[in-house]
Amino acid sequence: MKKLLFAFGFVMGISISATHGQAVSAKTKIQVNPLYVQSRLEGIGASWHSESLDKIDESPEYKWAYRYKNSRGSAWGGNPPVTHEAGWKKVSDYASWLGMSWVSVELSARMYEPEKGMFDWENEEMLALYKILDWAQKNNATVFLRQMWANVKWNSYPGVQPLMSAPKSVDDFANGLATLIDHLLNVKKYTCIKWLCISNEPPAWWNKGDEEVSITPALKAVRAALDQRSVSLQISGPDWTELPRFDAGRIDFNEYIGAYDIHIYGALDSAREIILSDWVKWANTHQKPLFLSEMGNMALGWQDENPGPKSFNAAISNVETILKGLEAGVSGFSRWSYTNRGDLDGQWQLIHTWDRQNKQYLKEVTIEPAAFYGFGIITRFCAKNSDVVKTTKTGSPKILSQSIKSPTGKITTYILNLSDQPESIEYELLGKPALPLYLYKASEAEVTQPDYKMEGQKMVLQESGVLSIQIPARSIYSLSQYKLRHKDPGVKR
Q1: Is 54 exposed, middle or buried (0-12, 13-18, 19+ CB in 10 A)?
Q2: For residues 480 and 130, what is the distance between their CA atoms, to the nearest angstrom?
């Protein structure tokens, strides 16, 4: 619910020009009211899977099976081996630079319970999971823990490949998952895990082959199994894709979950904005947040080694989704994905860990510049549990803008130019903001230069009372009270 916290009329303005002092005629006006809170944002980040050795059983005995190389999409194999300490340090350091504050962390049941009642806490994939959770714990990031699939034959329906099968025994499924959570929270002492999603994209990985199986009994059983262990971790659901139309008649699980989440893999046009708004309104009516637990734009390319997902156009699309999502009241965003092999379902990776030609892990982990910086210009300035504050924009429909206020009171305004032409902006920040502000810029021409640095340009107070900016075509700007040097990690609070 939007809430006006305090009314006031004082305006503190700042004026700069990105055209070396030349005056620009503003077409678009952006006004930010930092005391008018619209919603709470848990954070923004990217999906980070722990699966690597979790193989698919493709035995001919299965009547219903996935038998192609990207049967699991690209939710596996993007991390270096856990013994590659230098590689993991790079992976962790780049995650810290991005400052990801809300991260979907993926796993499978086969990792921890390959046979009924036989738990394995120290294998390669579990050790990778701990490394990811260690990073989140250290960097004050919220973890949305998501079991992608079970993939265990012992609890699959006859004739159905374990990868795609719903659990034959819901109770066994729930007890196994609750045992994992108890281990992570009470033995490993992770406090960063705030949400649990029990299955990725049902019914794709939750069926009996020729028959869909409702996930609701499993949500109920997992809730009961967690309660039995006095674990208060909240469940999120339904994790449906791809931006499904909202239908209250399909929601029979509200009492078992603490949050709603869905996936989006297309551009947010006006019709799809309505769908997203419907989901947010339903969730908020029930006092629950709505997350976009996977987001991307497959219209820009996917499958095999398609480079579309790591392009700057994809970065533009991600930011558009985030800004429109903030306007709608979305509480958390996870881009697909942080690590990724890039040869399974498209090049979704923000960092480069896998040699696609030679099919081996790289000795040196590097960034994918367009994707990395095009996403980092948003995540670096987004502290966990920020408030989304009122941002009023008039003028060009090609300009999108939203503003957030950190728990420590620092304001960041995001500005996206979707136009193929430069656009002029007049920016106004109401109240008495702590000065100065810093302007950070990302365009394809800039971020793909070898010497690119995301350094803030200090804003100079002018008598005009507004901040005048000319933003280049198809560019992303962040205007923030945070002063970050390029070598600094993203903000934590």
Answers
A1: buried
A2: 33
Q: What share of the chain is helix, strand, coil (3-state, %, to 5)?
A: 25, 30, 45
Residue type, 284: N
The Cα-based distances of 45 to 95, 238, 291, 316 in angstroms read 9, 20, 12, 15
Q: Can you tell me the distance from the alpha carbon of 56 to that of 149, in angstroms, rounded to the nearest whole number?
A: 11
pLDDT tens digits, 44-87:
999 999 999 877 898 999 999 998 878 899 999 999 999 999 99
Whether this model's pTM surpasses 0.90: yes
- Asked if residue 470 lies in contact with residue 419, where contact means CB atoms within 8 angstroms, the answer is no
The one-letter code for the residue type at 260 is Y
Cis before 124? omega within 30: no
**Dist. CA 440–CA 380, nearest whole Å:** 10
Residue with tokens 């820009």: 300
- Distance set, CA 367 to CA 97, 220, 329, 335 (Å): 11, 42, 31, 16
Distance between CA atoms of residues 250 and 315, nearest Å:
33
d(CA 212, CA 207): 5
- Asked if 455 and 485 count as a contact pair (C-beta separation under 8 A), the reply is yes
Helices 216-228, 170-182: crossing angle, 10 deg rounding: 40
- Cβ contacts of residue 118 below 8 Å, gap of 6+? none
Predicted confidence (pLDDT) per residue in 86-135, tens digit: 999 999 999 999 999 999 999 999 999 999 999 999 999 999 999 999 99
Render 358-410 in DSSP notation, one character per residue.
TTEEEEEEEE-HHHHHHHHHHHTT--TTEEEEEEEEES-TTEEEEEEE-TT--
Cα distances from 459 to residues 13, 462, 480, in angstroms, run 11, 9, 10
Q: Quickly list H helices, 58-108.
A: 85-98
